[in-house]
Design brief:
The protein is α/β, with parallel strands linked by helices. The protein has eleven helices and four strands. The radius of gyration is 18 Å and the shape is globular. The termini are far apart.
Amino acid sequence: MSEYKKIDPEKEIENICNWIKEWFDNNGPKASAVIGLSGGKDSTIVAALLVRALGKDRVVGVLMPNGEQKDIEDSKAVAKLLDIKHYIVNINPAVEGEKKALAEAGIEMGNDAIINTPPRIRMTTLYAIAQSLPNGGRVANTCNKSEDYVGYSTKYGDAAGDFSPCADFLVTEMRQIGDALGLPTELIHKTPSDGLCGLSDEDKLGFTYDTLDKYVMTGVCDDAATKEKIDRMHKNNLHKLQTIPTYCK
């Protein structure tokens, strides 16, 4: 394993859990954590950290297929493994309703809008559930540092949330944390995808997470074309990591 990949996962787990506890003490002492469960490594790891930090009774999982989701059994397996309350909300009627409403207004959705509308509806669903819980809820962001670096997320979709426990960890580091938590290998190391378009994340990015992580941490990329693409994506997507620009009088 390269030096850039080495962390002390047990220590990081302790630190993250302490941070989660402190954040909730200050921002919702009785509130539950609400998290979308995709069945992928990031949501699985964050959910496990939330259970460890807050206890299973204060964690609510939400499964949000857009019609049929081929790997939804993985999401169900996470909820069962962690023994947390969970809901299944099929967002397809909302997605199709939005498309229909726009079409009736004379608007033809562009490809980016078609891709990003389901994640935004999923985030709307998480906040609706969070605000409907007896003691309130706080929505967990499950982004990691690798995907944030190249903007591989939807603004106000999966890039949103009230708190983000793992945004400073690379994909390779997240896998180490997942392994240290004792989570199933088939979930932590399965080929990542968004569950919406049928392609893997790495297929859509055009490079592997190992390549991206190495470049983020060391500045070294053996392929000039890949380096140029990563740099371009990073520059073009920085706005996703910034707060809303505000004019000050």
